[in-house]
Amino acid sequence: MHKWSATATAVVALAISCFNFAELQRQPDVELALPHLLRLEKLGNGVRFYVQPTMSTRVKSEDVEVVRDARLQLTPTASISRSKHPVFYWRESVVWYYDPSTDTVNNRWSGDPAPFIVSQDKPQQPSFEFRANDWMYQAGRYEGSLELIRSGSQKPLVKKFCLIISEAAVNELTNPQPPDQTIRFFRNDLPKYTSSSCFRRDTD
Description:
With 204 residues, the protein is α+β, with helices and mostly antiparallel strands. 16% of the residues lie in helices and 43% in strands. It has 2 helices and 13 strands, in the order H-E-E-E-E-E-E-E-E-E-E-E-H-E-E. It has helices spanning 2-25, 167-174; strands at 30-33, 37-43, 46-51, 54-57, 65-76, 89-99, 104-111, 116-118, 127-132, 140-150, 157-165, 183-187, 200-201. The strands form 3 sheets. The chain has a 7-stranded antiparallel β-sheet with strand order 7-6-9-3-2-12-13, with helices on one face. A hairpin with a 4-residue loop joins strand 6 (89-99) and strand 7 (104-111). It is globular.
């Protein structure tokens, strides 16, 4: 009886060890989530688009996920001329901070557009600054997507969203008042727009 008990214990221990080893060898399953807030800005003859997604994994693994690139697309719908199509590129990453002297939220450089690691003990929440030259936000609806390119043969992580820009928002972006407050906030959780999950200017 003792021998059978010892054998059974050894088999269970081996099974647990094999399971743990297999779990550690798994590719981390990265999840991508968008925030409730986007920031838009006009800059000279171009525009800036800021988004701060969250990337995390619940899988414990010896491997790590490497995100090599970030891409943003905004596709105008029928209400906007298709010829006015922005071409965005990831310019840099920034960090946001509150300035009590001006009662404003500003940003400063935090990183170049470079690969970064996502693992269970190292979730990421970078604030991407995307830029498009020779283009200006037009009033209407856009279908957008944030795409993160991963290393190896892993499929890109993609999150789609919609953005509605009003005429008033375009006027504020073009002629901000005061002139030094050029960034406008767009949210997808405004109570008065519960029937739509699109991002809209928070003061519309």
